[in-house]
Amino acid sequence: MLKNIAFRVVVIYLIIGGLYMFFSDWIVQRFVTEPATLTRIQTYKGLGYVVVTGILIYFLIQTQLNRLKKTDQLLKEAEELNERLNHTMEELRELDKRRNMLISTMGHELRTPLNSIIGFADILFKEYSGAINKEQAEQLMIIKNNARHLLSLINDVVEIGRIELIGEKLSLTKINLNGLISEIIDSFKPAIEKKGLSIEIIPDRIEIFSDEKRIRQIPINLLSNAIKFTEKGSIKIELVDAGDFVDIIVQDTGCGIDPEDMRYLFEPFGITHFKKRPGVEGTGLGLYICKRIVSMLNGEIFVESQPNKGTKFVVKLKKKMEVV
Asked: Coiled-coil ranges per the record (predicted)?
């Protein structure tokens, strides 16, 4: 700033001096011919030059100093604002950390009694404690289904808290992706068979170096959604070796997603914006969790869908995550 002021002063000084000398000499030479008068005029001219230049330079410097003061004041205010923002950010981080810890604790406290409810309802439903009638069996099934739905919601909320917890690190290890996908499919076989769906697996023997716990959640959530939103038809799971990346593709022939609903797809509770589908329950947290995990793993997730024709999810992940 000071260098800028000094440069401007020099430039203005030279411009004013040059113009003053040129026009004053031109006027004097044209109208004054006596030597004595010429000498006096030259003296006055020099004095006038000094006075005029001094006044102009004073105003120039004063203007620049005023601007400098305003700039300094703005910088000071900006620093104070930045300090307040940093303080607020620290408070928000602390609140966010406490919130996630509370969610985790409450999740544990809620899951314990829910698991008991599901367990005892299952014991009663299977008549281990005595015979039950048809109406009682239906009521027990309602209890089990609603308890499982609530347990799933709690698990998703707790998982979001873990993902968003500041400073959470990845646990990297070598993963046999084919074996992992096979395990996940086996765990979903009862649900797949119950709906009479066919499942096609196109494996490509791939090993990756990543976080197994996080990787596992991606196909679990995608396959769960595919089963949930496919009443008849098939589900296809494909692993594609793409150089430094691997593509996990989950495709179904289900109800598809309306174009106007696509923007809510990866938002928490985004499914609440969707058109209601009979017999389908959910929170929409699964895809939000997938999106967050994929971002954590420096990957990408894409979706293609047409109403009543099905949906295709493509997850592109690095084969080798770097240890940070």
From this structure: 61-98
